[in-house]
Amino acid sequence: MTASPHDDPAPNPHATAEQVEAAMKDSKLAQVLYHDWEAETYDEKWSISYDERCIDYARGRFDAVAGDQPLPYERALELGCGTGFFLLNLMQGGVAKTGSVTDLSPGMVKVALRNAESLGLPVDGRVADAETIPYEDDTFDLVVGHAVLHHIPDVEQSLREVLRVLKPGGRFLFAGEPTTIGNFYARWLGRATWETTTRVTKLPFLSDWRRPQAELDESSRAAALEAVVDLHTFDPSDLEEIAKSAGAVEVRAATEEFAAALLGWPVRTFEAAVPSEKLGWGWGRFAFNGWKSLSWVDEKILRHVVPRQFFYNVMITGVKSGN
User: Fold this and answer.
1) Measured in Å, how far apart are the chain's first and last C-alpha atoms?
2) In whole angstroms, what is the distance from residue 38 CA to residue 33 CA?
3) What is the model's pLDDT at position 5?
4) What count of other Cβ atoms lies within 10 Å of the Cβ of residue 252?
5) Phi, psi dihedral angles at 249 (to 5 degrees)
């Protein structure tokens, strides 16, 4: 399969009611509609940037699971790129020289390429299904992804495709995937925070802390689609076995964010429920410093005493056999 000249479909950020209804029974259509709708505001929603803060985050995830590697890789692919957050920050962090981005959502590919251009990074992109990657065998030195595997119906098939497009000895690394136990408490915290915030802000003296009802309704519809596009959670050991079954060698999973997730999910949900102008710089500093401090606690203390499956995020890496 070759990445030849192509005409990718246009983004569709305004799905009809009929399309949304159909998407409830078609996970891949749901992926496109949900992520096209989110594309233009996704970086703001998740506090994504392309500066030192997120460069350090991306590089930290890479180093945490891959360890010391000879860098940079010559050519890297990001699978399910979203707005390009992971690959673009890894490139800025010295992990790869050139890149390609793919996503099922035309809107996300459009934003990722725009972000790459604004950063002056040599990146091309395709609208593509992760289960049928449109590149030739032995094309890439590195394949990465962030919060993508849990969206893919057949994870093992996707990893087979990843190994196919990797050169012998090439590495893949996926981060930001939800563990089964972590997803349970994170979702519970998110729902509880949403219900509490939207109820309390109905009080007259807190009405200016309440988003317009139309925005709240739109967020609720997004949450309904999100439930359709989030297909999997992972036990770290099971994810390692899936990667090995796909043909990878030197497979290793690592987990992170336990205390940090207990803060992060209520914080992110609260931010979605109140007007952004009410939060300001002080809130952003609190949220980031709080997450950073608790991540230190997770790394230095809790990972030594808490079983890895209790952490919220799982990362996985592996290598294509050189034979």
Assistant:
1) 22
2) 9
3) 47
4) 17
5) -120, 170
Residue with tokens 């808490």: 306
For residue 277 the two structure tokens come to 């102008």
175-186 mean pLDDT: 97
Using only C-alpha atoms, the chain has a radius of gyration, in whole angstroms, of: 20
What residue type is 191 in one-letter code?
R
CA dihedral 30, 31, 33, 37 (to 10 degrees): 130
Other residues' Cβ atoms within 10 Å of the Cβ of residue 7: 6
Residues 6+ apart with CB under 8 A from 80: 102, 103, 104, 130, 145, 146, 147, 148, 151, 152
pLDDT recorded at residue 6 = 61
Sorting pLDDT into bands at 50, 70 and 90, what band is 174? very high
- On the question of pLDDT at 116 being above 70, the answer is yes
Give the C-alpha distances (Å, rounded to integers) separating 63 from 70, 119, 162, 310: 11, 23, 20, 21
Pairing state between β 140-146 and 96-103? unpaired
> Given this model, what pLDDT does residue 43 score?
79
Angle, vertex CA 67, rays to CA 64 and CA 71, nearest 5: 115
Dist CA 35 CA 19 (whole Å):
14
